[in-house]
Design brief:
17 helices, 551 residues, elongated, binds zinc ion, alpha+beta, two-stranded antiparallel ribbon, 5-stranded antiparallel sheet
């Protein structure tokens, strides 16, 4: 009868209504088990104020799930639906206490509780004022609600991790808020399962009435900054157009009035490709994209699931590699997840899962357009934390754990990105203002990376990828130029590269030239007879500045 009454709010208390409810109750009794009826009652009963349902009441009054309540607490909730007004402070609470204790006495009389249990339960005080409802993953729940209505939902989140991520975000928010940087998004996914373990959509709850904090930053499209550079590096390794060691020009560049500069506004002349990625150099990246082709790279990005990059190559031009296109935390994390899962030999799913109750039959991803060999070399370059372009004092973090990570900063300091990958985890962080206001000093390395590394330190596991030697081969490269060594290269190094047919051309920097008898001038047959010439290897790369710590 009570379940039926709950299902008919506002019905009049008249005899005909009562009779009708009896008929409905009889039907319910015939159709459902007692257990099911009890479940319906527990889910819909009023528990005072606007609290509906036993589970909500347990959290509201005791801050715990109904499974975890004591006898005293359970008894209080059991008597409350018959008189929900008794939860209010004052005299009503004495009556609530009496009712609760009467129930506990009844349980003792029936032998459910022994006398000691009953006495201890009756000693428990009633809860004080109601607690705030837990709101640990507001934006994800809103997302589920928008997708499929009111829950409940079973999520893939790790409650402990989510709580820690929330606490980390709050700590950084307190710092960033002083610079009027108010919004943040954090996504943590498990590489093995493709499941989201922590979903922090924004800084809701960090301060009251915060601008933009209701916006879920996980799917929001924002300028990519430098975060796509490593994917170009991977694609070019696969195409045999670069080697990790091969030199890329780093000289002033102008293309249709597009004239990028490096972060430090300096030029190195030429740098090995892996260093372009490690130091996130803009000018050589633009040259690499010009060589590879924006159209071709766009296709790679689309295969990697960047659905917000949907214009054609002419629209983006070469600025595609410097933040000209928009990505979201979700697509960024997912692309890095694809590479990590493929490299680790885990199943690669098209989508992250966040609903344990709805994503059991997930689609496998399309073919990943970057090979395991190239992914390994890319992550290897990204694990070198020594980045002179963006030095910061907190760099000490990396001791003991290898993480491949990439930062990004959009034009006008509007977006700070940091994405990191290990064998087990993908962590992606965005910091900025959701209304798009840029603030001075907001860069990926100074705002997003510290958050990302704190999240990593809250995660277990420190495994690194095994080198996919089945897809790789060792070749000799010129020590000076990093290209495949010719017979003339004086010093060679052996490196691992993707095992593909196309490799870059031989070193062009060491070649044979003819000199005069004194060995002073370069000559040819028009100025010098052959018997007076002498052969000598010439090093055309001697102008290249040496950097310490490079290979
Ligand atoms: Zn050479």
């Amino acid at each position: 009868m009570q379940v039926i009454r709950l299902s008919r709010p506002g019905a009049p208390r008249t005899l005909p209504e009562k009779v009708y409810e009896m008929i409905l109750a009889t039907r319910l009794e015939m159709r459902c088990t007692k257990r099911k009826i009890l479940l319906l009652y527990a889910s819909n009963a009023p528990f005072g104020g606007n609290v509906v349902g036993l589970e909500a009441a347990a959290w509201r009054y005791f801050g715990r799930s109904a499974d975890d309540l004591s006898w005293g607490e359970s008894a209080m909730l059991a008597v409350l639906p018959n008189a929900p007004g008794l939860i209010h402070p004052g005299r009503a609470r004495e009556r609530l206490l009496e009712k609760r204790n009467a129930l506990l006495d009844k349980l003792e009389a029936k032998g459910v509780l022994d006398p000691t249990e009953c006495m201890l339960a009756k000693d428990e005080p009633l809860p004080d004022k109601p607690l705030a409802m837990p709101d640990a993953a507001y934006h994800l729940l809103e997302r589920c609600r928008a997708e499929s209505g009111d829950g409940p939902y079973e999520l893939t989140l790790d409650a402990t991790l989510q709580t820690r991520v929330n606490a980390i975000a709050k700590r950084y928010f307190d710092m960033y808020h002083t610079n009027l940087v108010d919004n943040m998004g954090i996504l943590v996914a498990d590489v093995h399962t493709g499941e989201i373990r922590a979903y922090y959509g924004n800084t809701r709850g960090c301060a009251s009435r915060l601008r933009g904090a209701d916006v879920d930053m996980i799917p929001a499209a924002r300028s990519s900054g430098s975060t796509l550079k490593p994917l170009l590096y991977g694609a070019m390794l696969d195409a045999g157009e670069i080697l990790p060691t091969s030199l890329v020009k780093d000289t002033p560049y102008n293309y249709n009035n597009f004239s990028p500069h490096n972060y430090g506004r300096t030029f190195d002349g030429a740098v090995p490709a892996h260093e372009v990625i490690e130091r996130s150099l803009n000018v050589p990246s633009v040259r690499m994209l010009e060589q590879f082709g924006a159209e071709r790279f766009l296709q790679i990005l689309q295969k990697l699931g960047f659905t917000t990059i949907d214009k054609d190559a002419d629209h983006y031009g070469l600025s595609l590699i410097l933040g000209g296109a928009e990505i979201s935390l979700q697509t960024l994390a997912r692309a890095y997840y694809y590479l990590a899962a493929e490299l680790a030999g885990d199943p690669v799913y098209e989508e992250f899962a966040y609903r344990a109750d709805a994503h059991r039959d997930r689609l496998p991803a399309r073919r990943i357009p970057i090979s395991r060999a190239a992914a390994y070399l890319t992550f290897d370059a990204l694990s070198n934390a020594n980045r002179p372009e963006e030095e910061a004092s907190w760099m000490d973090f990396a001791t003991g754990r290898k993480i491949a990570w990439k930062t990004g900063t959009s034009w006008g300091n509007r977006d700070a990105w940091s994405v990191g990958v290990t064998r087990d985890w993908v962590v992606a962080v965005w910091v900025g203002n959701s209304d798009g206001e840029g603030r001075s000093g907001v860069t990926g390395v100074s705002y997003a990376s510290p958050v990302m590394f704190d999240v990593f330190s809250a995660l277990p596991g420190a495994a690194w990828f095994a080198r996919p030697t089945d897809e790789m081969t060792q070749i000799e490269v010129c020590h000076e130029s990093g290209f495949p060594a010719s017979d003339l290269c004086p010093q060679r190094d052996t490196i691992w590269v993707p095992d593909i047919e196309e490799q870059p051309d031989m070193c062009r920097y060491h070649r044979l030239v003819h000199l005069d008898a004194a060995g002073r001038y370069q000559v040819n047959s028009s100025c010098c007879p052959p018997e007076e010439r002498k052969c000598a290897p010439k090093c055309a790369s001697s102008s290249r500045p040496r950097r310490s710590g490079t290979t």
